[in-house]
Amino acid sequence: MKKDWEYKPFSDVIECLRTGLNPRVHFKLNTEDAQGYYITVRELKGFTFEVDSKTDRINETAIKRINERSNLKIGDVLFSGTGTIGRTAIVEEEPTWWNIKEGVYAITPRKDKLNSKYLIYLFKSNNILKSIYSKASGATIRSIPMKELNKIIIPIPPLSEQKEIVEYLDSSFAKIDKLKENAAKNLEEAKALFQSALKDALEPKEGWEMKTLKEIGITQTGTTPSKSDSANYGNYMEFIRPSEIDFNGMGGINYNCELKLSEQGASNGRVFEEKSILMVCIGATIGKVGFSNKKISCNQQINVLTPSSEYDYKFVYYSMKSPRFQKMVIKEGTSSQATLPIINKGKWEKLTVQVPSLQEQQSIVSFLDSLSEKVNTLQQNCSRICNECDALKQAILRQVFE
Questions:
Q1: Cβ atoms 102, 22 nearer than 8 A
Q2: β 297-298/233-240 pair status
Q3: 94, 114, 194, 225: which could form a disulfide with 268 (CB 3.0–4.6 Å)?
Q4: 3-state secondary structure at position 143
Q5: Confidence class for position 141, pLDDT limits 50, 70, 90
Q6: Which helix (H) or strand (E) holds 366?
Q7: pLDDT category, 360, cuts 50, 70, 90?
Q8: Which CATH number is 209-355 given?
Q9: Are 216 and 358 within 8 A, CB to CB?
Q10: pLDDT of 176 strictly over 90
């Protein structure tokens, strides 16, 4: 224990702890008279909250009704007690145009005991979060009951020291965040340069021929073996879904997928040969494309092209990743009246790419693979730096609070 620090249950250093109300029970969301926002876990961003086009809107009646329960005040700390437990924000202005969802807790610290930003940093500490998680319940969606949160023991130094700790952590975290920001910026610049090189490399030249996907190879659509028959699933073959395509941004397939087929499942589904190109053809990620280096199966949201021997499969992959091809996919996918963008196999296989000789294809692939590898290295470095920065933050928090 540190000198002059007290260790008290949460309830001893706050005025009150409460949650919002679910307006779906009493009010319609996103109506024409909506004037404010309905803050959920998604909007909590650490020290503040951010609203966007996905944030639900509520009308003035709903805001007042919910505020009767949550009674938000400037200086309150918002804490996600359900789902993604531990996300936070501070109420920095009079909450007249927004309110919080049930499951987002509003905490009013005692001004003589607890600094709001100090509390935010406490919630960022893995040790405090572990204590909170240990009290959470629920099989699918975890939740920390307010009565359990009130029992959590937290370190409480004098207010003057809390202020010094906040200033120190603000400064330290800002420097760490700058390192992460620079790494991310370098990666984005490298990706932009790669896209520019991709466009230039695939610019048609004399002698190039326009080919439909159907002319290049075998086109197919995935299918899902019956899930009611558990014998269709096992560890025999990877069953790829949209989230596992291009998971690393460089066309890779995540073979460590959640679902795998048994031999029976593979025979009941569709098996695609190695060196096939997979493209998501429905939904928000339409156009996402990757390539396989082993036999796989996939679901019906994905169309697959297996090029014939006179085409380099990586060249076809890069062509389908190009801005020109992606624009065609989006145009065709959004031309129907469907709620979600979708392009069926019949339309997809008629899309075209420009193709040079096999030797030139291989030369272009060699060039783009080299650039892709450099981007991939930067991506790995960026991930490493971000992980190290997060670990450094936790080390600083341990130094401060333990």
A1: yes
A2: parallel
A3: 225
A4: strand
A5: confident
A6: helix 358-401
A7: very high
A8: 3.90.220.20
A9: no
A10: yes
